[in-house]
Design brief:
The complex is a heterodimer of chains A (317) and B (366). By secondary structure, chain A is an all-alpha fold. Helices cover 76% and strands 0% of the residues of chain A. The model of chain A has no long low-confidence stretch (mean pLDDT 87). Chain B has 366 residues and is an alpha/beta fold. Chain B has twelve helices and 14 strands. About 5% of the residues of chain B have low confidence. In chain B, the strands form three sheets. In chain B, strands 1, 2, 3, 4, 6, 7, 8, 9 and 12 form a nine-stranded mixed β-sheet that branches. A three-stranded mixed β-sheet of chain B has the order 5-10-11. In chain B, strands 13-14 form a two-stranded parallel sheet. The chains are: A mainly alpha (317), B alpha/beta (366). At the A-B interface, helix 5 and helix 10 of A face helix 3, strand 7 and helix 8 of B.
């Protein structure tokens, strides 16, 4: 806030200096900025209007007209559940890993290794999602089969690992892990930027007082980067919620709503379901798919707003 | 002022366009009368099952007729029918005949207002039951056992019902992983139609392109199913016979014998099936009501039949002659042979060809 105020003041000063009139460059710049901002708003509004108008028939349609003969709410609920579950697994796996990687790069590794490592983590973001999907079914899935069997045998009493373990490894757990790898770079990059900006006087002060490296990180770096880590995690979550191709390819979806992460029966996600069913759909079924898209839009919006709220509170404190 | 200026420009442009078009078409007519070839651009859309075959047909046809450009957009059967009805495409490929639901058939007839609607089978593909069970080279299943495997009543390979179909075979205790399509597909539609017609007491689900049983392994696309079956020991799935690759193919009981998904057996079941009167209202609409319950020897009833949808009349002579020539090629013995080689489909039998050809020969400009 204070930053914005200073710039306006500076602008006014400049304007005053140039005889009360704003210079051409300023006017062009401010117009361009306004147009860009309005375009983004208009695009967002356009997408929302499209989703609402095209999805509306599905909301009002009776159960018999919709795919599967269910009401729209019954149709979308398992999909929303699957979407949130897969993203939650991804976040739970990726966020601690991303924080650890960011800490290692900023405060532990020698500078030369840190540079290369940071570059490599960023490179993960450049891999297309379909490649992750193929990697998931050809490599990670089959490799996970013995692990899933082990989980079923040893930890089967936990509902998450109830089994029966999938014979192909195309389960919610594997899909979640692939999603975690996909969102790792974005979460880690944002955490890294924040950690690197920890004021030197704080870190050096902590060490001067006799703190170990871990104590220094816990007392200065982590609190300093907290809000950025949260916003990074939410950005990552946003990507996981909307991720389509990788989930479409990897996940064995059969509509069941369950927390069982290692079986072949998994709930689908909204995005994957649209990708799977759109090609052969027509009429009202397409409206229903677009309406599920609206629900996904809403979920993402709520996630982002929650993140904003958390960050705002953090900054307030 | 400005609007009248625009009008002048626009009308000039239109005149020019018409003049050019006239030049173009007159040039083409001389070309076609000289070399016996056709020209123009035609667009089709529809079934993904037909994609490989359509691509092969188009490549070969364009090779023979250099003046023609044909495109086929594999948007899916539903999308293909919709685009055809809306007039966006000259022909469509569809895994299901135009239905009477939501007035689809009527709308399609209306689209061909001046002429008649054509709907003929052009692509038959046997659906194989593929399995992955090391040590079991041959597997025989009767429809009831098959249905029970896919609705998860039979869960282990050494089940008595499977053993009864395979005397002498050593069946392991492995758990059965039934694999189905996760996307909506014509393959699923035809497979579930077969199950619900042949063993309705076991398979009580409504027939649709979406797999009805929850809790199985699901994979997207034919390639996804094949990959999942190949990856999972004890897995069994259904896929176009041509895509089965190295996997084991189960023989299915038809009458007293166990039948394999050969092209001949697939074509024969269509040949012996009656027409669906409701869906075949016109002279040129040939929609079969597949006799899935057939017990006749040498047939394999789990087949996917895909249709060509077109009109007998097209506005321009160019379009009409191009559509006619292309579709004639598609259903010709050469075209069918090419599809069998490239896409693994079952060629139309001579009996079917003789029924289908007159419909396409009726295409003319109007």
């Amino acid at each position: 806030m204070s930053q914005v105020d200073t710039t306006t003041n500076a602008g006014q000063l400049l304007a005053a200096a140039s005889g009360g009139r704003r210079r051409l460059g300023d006017r062009v710049f401010s117009r361009t900025a306004v147009v860009a901002a309005v375009t983004i708003l208009a695009l967002l509004a356009g997408v929302a209007i499209f989703l609402v108008s095209e999805g509306f028939p599905a909301f009002t349609a009776s159960a018999s007209e919709l795919p599967g003969g269910k009401t729209f709410l019954d149709y979308v609920a398992p999909l929303a559940f699957g979407t949130v579950l897969a993203s939650a697994i991804a976040a739970v796996v990726a966020v601690p890993l991303a924080i650890a990687a960011a800490l290692f790069i900023t405060h532990i590794a020698p500078p030369r290794i840190a540079g290369t490592l940071g570059y490599l983590v960023d490179l993960l973001a450049a891999i297309p999602s379909i490649i992750y999907g193929l990697w998931g079914i050809f490599v990670l899935g089959p490799a996970a089969v013995p692990v899933l069997k082990w989980l079923e045998e040893k930890l089967g009493w936990i509902p998450l690992f109830e089994g029966p373990a999938s014979a192909t490894g195309r389960t919610m757990l594997v899909a979640g892990i692939v999603l975690a790898v996909m969102i790792l770079p974005i979460v880690s990059a944002i955490a890294r930027e924040a950690f690197a900006q920890t004021p030197r006087k704080l870190t050096e002060g902590a060490q001067a007082l006799g703190a170990t490296r871990w104590e220094m990180i816990r007392m200065t770096v982590l609190p300093f980067g907290k809000s950025s880590v949260i916003s990074g995690a939410m950005l990552g979550l946003g990507r996981a919620l909307g991720e389509t191709m990788a989930v479409t390819i990897i996940l064995s979806v059969s509509g069941a709503v369950s927390f069982n992460l290692i079986s072949q029966a998994n709930p689908s996600t909204i995005a994957a379901n649209i990708a799977l069913d759109f090609p052969e759909s027509s009429g009202l079924a397409i409206n229903a798919l677009i309406a599920t898209g609206l629900v996904l839009f809403a979920i993402t919006l709520v996630t982002n707003m929650a993140a904003r709220a958390v960050i705002a509170r953090q900054n307030h404190e | 002022m400005t609007s009248s200026k625009w009008f002048v420009v626009l009308s000039a442009a239109v005149t020019l366009a018409i003049a050019l078009a006239a030049c173009g078409s007159s040039g083409d007519t001389t070309g076609s009368s000289g070399g016996g070839s056709v020209s123009g651009e035609i667009a089709g859309a529809g079934s993904t099952a037909q994609q490989a075959a359509q691509e092969a047909w188009i490549a070969e046809f364009e090779n023979e007729n250099s003046g023609v450009t044909i495109s086929y957009d594999p948007v899916g059967s539903g999308g293909g029918r919709e685009q055809f009805i809306a007039g966006g495409t000259a022909y469509a490929g569809s895994d299901a005949a135009l239905s009477t639901e939501e007035g689809e058939l009527e709308k399609a007839e209306k689209r061909c207002a001046t002429g008649q609607l054509i709907e003929v089978p052009n692509y038959i593909s046997p659906i194989a039951i593929i399995y992955n069970l090391p040590g079991v080279e041959e597997l025989q299943l009767d429809p009831e056992t098959l249905a029970k495997i896919f609705n998860q009543e039979i869960t282990s390979w050494n089940d008595k019902a499977i053993a009864a179909d395979n005397p002498g075979a050593e069946l392991p205790e492995t758990r059965i992983t039934p694999v189905n399509r996760s996307d909506e597909s014509g393959t699923t539609q035809n497979f579930t139609e077969y199950l619900s017609e042949v063993v309705p007491s076991v398979w009580g689900y409504e027939v649709s392109g979406d797999w009805p049983v929850k809790g199985g392994e699901a994979a997207s696309g034919t390639s996804g199913v094949v990959e999942a079956v190949a990856a999972g020991e004890g897995a069994i799935g259904y896929a176009d016979a041509s895509q089965a690759g190295e996997l084991g193919i189960a023989k299915i009981k038809v009458g007293k014998e166990y039948a394999e998904p050969t092209p001949e057996a697939a074509a024969k079941v269509l040949e012996e099936s009656p027409l669906d009167k409701e869906l075949s209202p016109g002279k040129y609409t040939i929609a079969y009501k597949l006799d899935r319950k057939t017990e006749s020897q040498g047939t394999y009833p789990i087949v996917l039949t895909s249709y060509l949808i077109a009109c007998t009349k097209y506005d321009s002579a160019d379009e009409a002659s191009a559509v006619k020539a292309y579709l004639e090629y598609v259903v010709s013995p050469e075209g069918q042979k090419l599809a069998a080689e490239q896409a693994g489909s079952a060629p139309l039998s001579p009996v079917l060809t003789s029924k289908v050809t007159p419909a396409i020969e009726a295409i003319e400009a109007g």
